[in-house]
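Narrative summary of target 7.
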Amino acid sequence: MSDSSKGSKKLWGGRFGDTTSHITEKISSSIHFDKVLYRQDIRGSMAHAKMLNAIGVLTDDDYKNITRGLEDVRHEIEEGTFEFSTSLEDIHMNIESRLTEMIGDAGKRLHTGRSRNDQIALDLRLFIIDACNDISLLLKRLILELVTLANREIDTVMPGYTHMQVAQPVRFGHHMLAHAWALVRDLRRLEFTLSSCDNLPLGSGALAGVNYPSDREMLRKELDFSKIIPNSMDGVSDRDFALDFLYFASMLGMHLSRFCEELVIWSSSEFSFIRLSDTVTTGSSIMPQKRNPDIAELIRGKTGRLYGDMISLFTVMKSLPLTYNRDFQEDKEPVFDAVETVMLSLEGMIEMISSMEVNSGRLKETVYSNFSTATDLADYLVQKGVPFRQSHEVIGNIVRYCENEKKDFFSLKLEEMKKFSDKFETDAVDVINPETSTERKASYGSTSKESVKNQIKMLQKILEG
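Modeled conformation, tokenized:
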């Protein structure tokens, strides 16, 4: 059947005398993007049909025909033989129309006791739930890659930074686990999103409920929801769950972007802390020597898309009166885009981290620059009874002396140090060593080897849970 003939009679067209205009159909149509909901729509329709059969609205024969027909529709869509029609507007009407073509009047009975309003609210919840489960697996894989890398490089010491200036020595593994803990928070936000979605809207009807004794408890069990939305108006108009997902996506994007910024900097020839694999870098069309960190840059850039998706839906929702408004058609594309962007970004991060080489020699060389153990030396004087503010000034004077004399801070001799304080003794020379600095960090959550090992165990337990 042609697209035009399919749309010649609208499923809602009984009270209309004139056909809709071309521009109305073009603006109204969402099938070009909401067809990705076909699995969730068919799943919801099967549960609805089963419930209608249980309460006596559908005969056993109608129920069997509807179930078989929906399976056939799903097969056609997945085989690529289904003919989507823009004039039928959306995935719901495309599926219902094709079902009716296949099985006759039984297909027309399927929509009894529901509205497209509660139907789409259900489909979108199911879609986000499915997406969250897929994203959770990728997120855990990325965390595991970071844990594995941290464990492998646990003895590698690097400079930690504040203001992008060398601050104090840290273990490379400790730095990687800082990113892992941020991703754990994202995982918790994802779990919250799942709980936010876990409320059944089906049975709310258009807004006021339905004129049938719908067994919403049966629907809840069939569709594996924990709770039923108790207010029909809220059921069709709530999109908080979608915003919760978009907030999660935005936060994850921000965390990935910060990490990618470091990968871009660290892979530069000036830093050379890491080497990204050829599989995740690209060349230049004019400069043959180039190895560009394009994947890291693209993931960093995609964060803007995720922010835009969230702001887009917030803006749609900000002034909508209860209950359903056609503006809700704009709720899906931001979600679909965010799901695709998040999954692609996570896959890219996993590929980059799993194939990344760490230049431990360069990291060791760099940690000996810019007075990275100055704080250790200040704390040394504190242990000798010097007030911290005074010890801070003493070490600052030593740093200035080294800069003026163009001397290496890490090769200072004891007699030079004593010019600034008589509290310095032979063991002060060892305190300057950046490779032992991390083991002097005694606080919980520090960069010491024992602390990093403990973090690895904690993260492994989270991943196993």
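The first strand starts at residue 157 and ends at 162.
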